[in-house]
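In the lab's daily routine, each protein ends up as an entry in a very long ledger. A line of letters takes care of the sequence, but it says nothing directly about the fold. The fold becomes a row of whole numbers, each drawn from a learned catalogue of backbone shapes. The protein below has been through that process, and both of its lines are reproduced in full:
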Amino acid sequence: MKKLLLATLLASTSTLAMAQIGTDGLYVQGNVGVSKLEAKVDGEKLKDNGAGYTVAVGKDMGAVRYQADYTNFGKIKENGSEGERGTASYAEWKGTMKAQSLGLSAIYDFNTTAGLTPYAGVRVGINQLKADYHDVSTAISATGQLTDITDNSSVKKTKVGAGVLAGVQYAFNPQMALDVGVEYNHLGKVDDTKMNQYGAKVGLRYNF
């Protein structure tokens, strides 16, 4: 009986120790904010502001945290027209570019005594970039009639990019902290179009 009791206590202690090792320093975090996407092509810049969000799981190692995330950077919308409708000189276009990413970050926390923890970090991401185009131009056919020529295309690329992030966290208690931060990410290229992202986000971090 004593041996069985001792074995049970040892097994319970081992299980608790493994659970502590497994969850010690782990956290989840969610951020939302403003994300500005910028596309550069042929010397021109297209940019648009929209909503962006991040869901992350991390491990706090003390001064350094390691974090894996999924981030939606939002999209760029571009549309316009030129010429006079109903003539051979008329053309109109519409396009969107979307960006989302899976990333890994290394973040350094600066210890302070004021309850605020500034941080700075670097991020490497696998980014999915997608561009959709819709163009309509008016031309004169061989019979002398006005006709619309439609061009629809879609391009999807997966690129590796890098970025930096910085901000500050305020701990309400040992489990919950408020996060306010900024970020920059070079997302890669879609054909000849280079894409960058700038963002400002606010979120919550929960420590297990």
Observations:
- Helices lie at 2-23.
- The radius of gyration is 25 Å.
- The beta strands are 26-41, 44-60, 64-82, 91-109, 116-140, 146-171, 176-190, 193-207.
